Amino acid sequence: MTFRIGYVGYVPHQNFFDTCAADPGLEVVRVPLEADIGEAVQILSSCHGYYAMASRDELPRHLHVNEALLAKLPHLLMVASTGAGYDTCDPDACTAAGVALVNQAGGNAEGVAEHAVGLMLGCLKRVPEAHAAMKAGQAQDRGALMGRELRGRVVGLVGCGHVGGRVAEIVRAAFGCEVLACDPFVDADTLAARGATKVEMDELLARADVVSLHCPLTPATRGLIGRAQFAAMKKGVVFVTTARGSIHDEDALLEALEAGHVASAGLDVWEVEPPPPSHPLLHHPAVMASQHTAGVTHESRANITKIAALAFGELAAGRMPPRIVNPEVKPRFAERVRAALGTAPA
C-alpha cells in the first residue's frame, strides 16, 4: 500500500523529495498555496500524512491543523511540522482525532544556536546602534558606543532543550560564561550535563546579563515574558529570542528599551511575521532584527526535511515515528494505523 504525503505550496529543502523518492512506499502530492479549502481538502483527504508549514503566517489559516480541518481528513494518520515548532498545529485536536503530531526538534539546533549567540555578541558590542549612527551620519564619537564582551557573563536560558543546550555549550566553552537555565521539563542533573545550572525564573531574571529564549510557543508560554519580567531583569540586560513570537510582549519590550532598562535586544521572531516595516522595534537603534531566519541555513533545512521524510517512512513501514509531540495519542493512533495499513506500529 502506498503511503501518501500531502504538503502545501513548497517544502523547505529538496532533501525531503530526495529522501521520499528513495522509499518506494511513499508518494508525495502537492496542494497549491492558493488552493481554497475545497480543493485542499480534496487533495489531502486521500493522504495518510500531512507535511505542514510550521510558521503560522506562511500557512493559510484554513490549512492549519485544527479540529475543523481534521474532521475533513478521516484518513490522516500523522502530521509533521516543517520545524521544531508546530504553531500551525493543535496537539489536543490531533490527539482527539487519533493523529500523531511530529516535529523536527533538534534538526536545526546548530543553526538556531549559532544565530542566538551571534545576536548576543552583536547586541553586547552595540552593532545595531553603530549601524544606525553610521546611516544617520552621526558616527563621530566611538566612545559613545562602548560595548561589552560576552566572556565571563551570566547567560540565562529560558528553555534548555536541543537549541538551548547547544547555546549553553557554545557560551561556556568559547566564552567561559556561567549558564543558568529555567526549564520545567528538564531535571537539574540533565541541565548540569548540558553545562547549565537549574534555577527558577525569578533567579534567572535577577542574575542574567543576557536572557535568551529557547522554549516552544504553547498556552503556558504565550506572554511568558511581559512587563513584570522585563522589570525583574538586571538593568542593562541584553534580551535575545530565537524561539517564537508571542512568548514575549513586544510593547513591553519597547517600553523597557526606551526606559534604558533593557540595553539591547536581538529579535528573530515576531508576533506577525514578517513584522510591518513601520514596527517600532525595527526602528529602535538598539534592536538587532532578523526575519525568523535563525534556522534558515542550508544545513538545517537539509537536516529537518530528511528527518521528516524518514519519520513518514517509519510509519509507512509499520514502525512508530520518533519525536511525537502528543505521546498520549499512541494507543488510539496505533489502532487507526492498524486499520489503515494492516499493521500497528511498535
From TrEMBL:
Gene Ontology molecular functions: NAD binding; phosphoglycerate dehydrogenase activity
Class of this enzyme: oxidoreductase
Residues covered by the D-isomer specific 2-hydroxyacid dehydrogenase NAD-binding domain: 117-294
Keywords: NAD, Oxidoreductase
Statement: the UniProt record of this protein carries the keyword NAD: yes
Record-annotated D-isomer specific 2-hydroxyacid dehydrogenase catalytic domain positions: 56-326
InterPro entries: D-isomer_2_OHA_DH_cat_dom, D-isomer_DH_CS, D-isomer_DH_NAD-bd, NAD(P)-bd_dom_sf
Pfam entry (one): 2-Hacid_dh
Annotated EC: 1.1.1.95
PANTHER family the UniProt entry points to: FORMATE DEHYDROGENASE 1, HYDROXYPYRUVATE REDUCTASE
Family recorded in the similarity comment: Belongs to the D-isomer specific 2-hydroxyacid dehydrogenase family.
Protein name as catalogued: D-3-phosphoglycerate dehydrogenase
Organism: Roseococcus suduntuyensis
Lineage of the organism: Bacteria, Pseudomonadati, Pseudomonadota, Alphaproteobacteria, Acetobacterales
